[in-house]
Amino acid sequence: MKNNRNGKAAILSDMDYSKIRKQIKSQKYKLLLDLAWYTGERWGALVQLRTEDVYQSNGLPHDCITFRARTRKAAPDGTRQTRQVPVHSVLLESLRAYKPDSLWLFPCREGNEPITVRWADKILRAAVERAGLDALGISTHSTRRSFITKLHRKGIDLYTIQSITGHRDLKALGHYVEIDGDRIKGAIATL
Question: Could you tell me if 27 and 97 are in contact, meaning their C-beta atoms sit under 8 angstroms apart?
């Protein structure tokens, strides 16, 4: 668990996510949380989304969200890859409710630049605190860890998860998957 910004970010339950989302007043920042929850992308790439990466010219959402290579974390060899993630039906509703009017999906107040990760983190931390979940070790990375762990718990194989998340190797991906005690006991019971 994360403590004073050290350690692994907490895994969120669906209920934790709902509690946090209810504490966010702005549709803009609700969408930011929804995108993090349903794509598993890092917040650094989320805040740099351009409207055209998510919406068609007619204002309707694309079937897939495009995270441009230059906005994503570099691999150890310094290269970056564009990632496309299909839009989940719940996320689609959130996208339909939001009407962007800027080059950036999440513009700062002036509108000429996107919000910063620091600002997004501040929004999330305030919502986590208002939800009474601040002792859990939740951070912006919690949504990525939760996304990956949820897929794994639902039986999605690691190679498919790797393809979805853009991880280059399974060892790095493995750091995101949290295995609970009941699952370990269940595995042993199958012997």
Answer: yes
β-bridge mates for residue 83, sequence order: 67
- pTM, entire model: 0.89
Architecture category of domain 14-189 in CATH: Orthogonal Bundle (1.10)
What does the block give as tokens for 142? 């919690």
Q: What is the pLDDT of residue 118?
A: 97
* Distance of alpha carbon 27 from alpha carbon 32, whole angstroms: 9
pLDDT averaged per 10 residues in sequence order, the chain, 191 residues:
63 96 96 97 97 96 96 89 95 95 93 93 97 93 94 89 84 75 75 79
List of residues 6+ apart from 33 with CB closer than 8 A: 17, 20, 21, 24, 124, 127, 143
Determine the residue type at 10. A
Q: Where are the alpha helices (DSSP H) in the chain?
A: 14-22, 27-39, 43-46, 51-54, 89-97, 117-130, 141-153, 158-165, 170-174, 181-189
Beta carbons of 114 and 103 less than 8 angstroms apart: no
Cα dihedral: 111, 113, 119, 120 (round 10):
90
